[in-house]
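Request from the bench team (R.T.):
"We need a structural guess for the complex before ordering more zinc ion. Sequence and SMILES attached. Just send the tokens back."

Command: build protein-zinc ion structure.
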Amino acid sequence: MHLVRTGEGTGRKWLAVALGVAATASCSPEPPDVGTLDALYAEPAEDILILRLTDGQTLGQLLEGSVSYNQQASLLLALREHANPRRMPAGTEVTLRFRQEDQGLRGVDVAVSRDQTVRLTRIDGAWSSDLVRTPIYLDTIHTSGEVESSLWSAVVRNSALNRMHEGDANRLIDALDRVFQWQVDFSRQTRVGDTYRFAYEREIRPDGSMRSGRLLAAEFVNASTAYYAIWFDGNGDGDGSYYDLEGRSVRRAFLRRPLEYRRISSRFSGSRYHPILKTWRAHRGIDYAANRGTPIMATSDGVVVHRAAKGSFGNTVEIRHPNGFITRYAHLSRFRPGVNLGTRVHQTDIIGYVGMTGLAGGPHLHYEILSEGQQIDPLSVDLPAGDPVPSEARRQWLGDMTARVALLESIPGAGPIRTVVVDEEPDEPDGGGAGAQDDREGSQ
Ligand SMILES: [Zn+2]
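Reply to R.T.: structure attached below.
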């Protein structure tokens, strides 16, 4: 969908991307915003050629071959309303926009700053100009991969994504982490041979950097168990949520872990890829190595019942949760201001920061979940929290879900997805094989 063909060795790149651009009035003091993320599965609407001014090159020289001499005069005149064509620094990005039907030149965008663009439009042979916010294009990335060491390296080294800016790849991983944060601890549960695939719709600037994005659908197969997160926004107001294939919320009463996946380091771990110092079995808690100052999230809603130094635990926060659980966060460098004894906190609220107070060999977070005073494995707590797709939105959900699953299935090399989830432990005594394909049988 992007990068259709490459030009004559001048670093010219043809991009076919869809445009989410609104017409704008000229001379408004505050340039209007021209990009919003409301299209889904954006399709190419026009072909785009991105050029950059080289040192000493004039805009006229750059446009040679693309815009006739007569046209150039009219174009530069229009440009002068908003910018001085003679003062364009090297590197200025100029985007030529062509109609897909006949490849006729439809417009020229000159990026006068990172966020402001002069948009030149040709109407009936004459050029006019508007100052707009740098336009944003929409596209959808579909990709898949297999874990060889960590999810992070599997995504970052994915050849389909290697044109991505590094910061953008990190945002992608964060997005995956966020939709799976209730089900999978990527730092602890990822296994060699796990697979992932996802479809991610994003807004990109003409230079390919990402402005924003949204995961539309994702699959993570962990030790043969498939997890799904499908975006659904029934009202279309951008305030949607993620569900599994059966329309159940991916949300749970507890996050799988109190730190963001990407903040957890493997530096102190004995094994090469394992960022965890010890398993909970060894000392009834889980240690996450992370830099000092890394924010710590409450894994569930609750009330702070301890916030002070606590022997070898050092600075410790304990939170009591409605369902009788207590979570404990130890060795903090400091507490978050405002988090005090009796403070009510919500899941994902920051409560403090990683440190090495108490008995700690290096900065890390010691995390425990206690039930009736006994430490339990956080992975054993799996309480549903979010509401399922409301019944009145069910029809729409089935349509959206099917379309988004099809995006995942369209990834080359990826197999079909059974849209009826088979639970890991089927309740039916005689399963009779995988049998029924699309009849929903009441699996819990
Ligand atoms: Zn520990």
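Two things stood out. Residues 283, 285, 287, 366 surround zinc ion (CB under 6 Å). Residues 254-385 form a domain with the Glucose Permease (Domain IIA) fold (CATH 2.70.70.10).
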